[in-house]
Amino acid sequence: EAGLLIPSSPSSSVSVILTQDDLKKIAAYKAVEYVESGMVLGLGTGSTAKHAVDRIAELLRQGKLKNIVGIPTSMKTHEQAVSLGIPLSDLDSHPVIDLAIDGADEVDPYLNLVKGRGGSLLREKMVESVCKKFVVIVDESKLVNYLGGSGLAMPVEIIRFCWKFTAVRLQKLFQESGCVAKLRTFGEKEEPFVTDNGNYIVDLYFEKSIGDLKVASDAILHIAGVVEHGMFLDMATTVIVAGELGLTVKNK
Ligand code: 5RP
């Protein structure tokens, strides 16, 4: 990870090196300042959200936060929260969430997101679409001019049945954007990655912009076999970006 030299204080000649993970932690800790006792919290997934969950647990242990209920967005976050003693529930019991904190893979200038490179996009979208406030935490490498613009994957969760057929339909849908659809795999044997919901993920790579995001979203969801996609449009209420020049808080 590239290091970043930051003076430890304005008058100091001593510098500390901040890694990308430090930046993620700084953004996460800032987001946890939005948490109040008694809240129902959506707990995100990924290396940035993990810092937020750690911090919430720390404040609970210290008695600075009380009566928190967490709704985890993945099995991994569920396990982390259980190991830290955070009280948990689910959407059946808590259909409205006060605040969700989660990372993202891409953030565009309008605070639209790509999520799901960690594979948890479906549960994340279920939780984050019913929260009053959705605070997104990223380091500045996640900022893009348009979604798909990082050249990295835009994930789509699909059912396993005839997955190649669905992948081909997705690729054809974005032919004009130079789309390539790839089944997500893991390990040396390249076994299909299976989500917490028992589905596969097809990652879409684009050469060019996909144009109107709402149109693209509707078209993807219209394909039978698609469960959900990783575009989170008009959902983030706040994005906290940790970067070379410090923290930036962008509000919708
Ligand atoms: C998981 C996600 C993550 O929030 C996203 O991939 C960002 O991860 P990280 O904080 O590790 O960079 O959407 O499905």
Helix/strand order, N-terminal first = EEHEHEHEEEHEEHEEEEHEEEE
Count of separate DSSP helical elements:
6
Strand order of the largest sheet: 4-3-5-8-16-17
Strand content: 25-35%
Query: End-to-end span in angstroms?
Result: 31 Å
Which stretches are low in confidence, meaning pLDDT under 50 for 5 or more residues running? 1-5
Global mean pLDDT = 94
The gross shape turns out to be globular
Bound molecules: ribulose-5-phosphate
Q: In this structure, how is the largest beta sheet organized?
A: 6 strands, mixed
List keywords for this structure.
alpha/beta, ribose-5-phosphate isomerase, Ribose5P_isomerase_type_A, single chain, binds ribulose-5-phosphate, NagB/RpiA_transferase-like, 252 residues, globular, isomerase, four-stranded antiparallel beta sheet, six-stranded mixed beta sheet
Concise summary:
Helices cover 26% and strands 29% of the residues. The protein has 252 residues and is of the alpha/beta class. 43% of the residues are buried.
Describe it.
The structure is a single chain. This protein has 252 residues and is an alpha/beta fold. The protein is built from six helices and 17 strands. Helix 1 crosses helix 2 and helix 2 runs parallel beside helix 3. It binds ribulose-5-phosphate. Ribulose-5-phosphate binds next to helix 2 and helix 4. One of its GO terms (molecular function) is ribose-5-phosphate isomerase activity. This is ribose-5-phosphate isomerase. Pathway: Carbohydrate degradation; pentose phosphate pathway; D-ribose 5-phosphate from D-ribulose 5-phosphate (non-oxidative stage): step 1/1. Keywords: Isomerase.
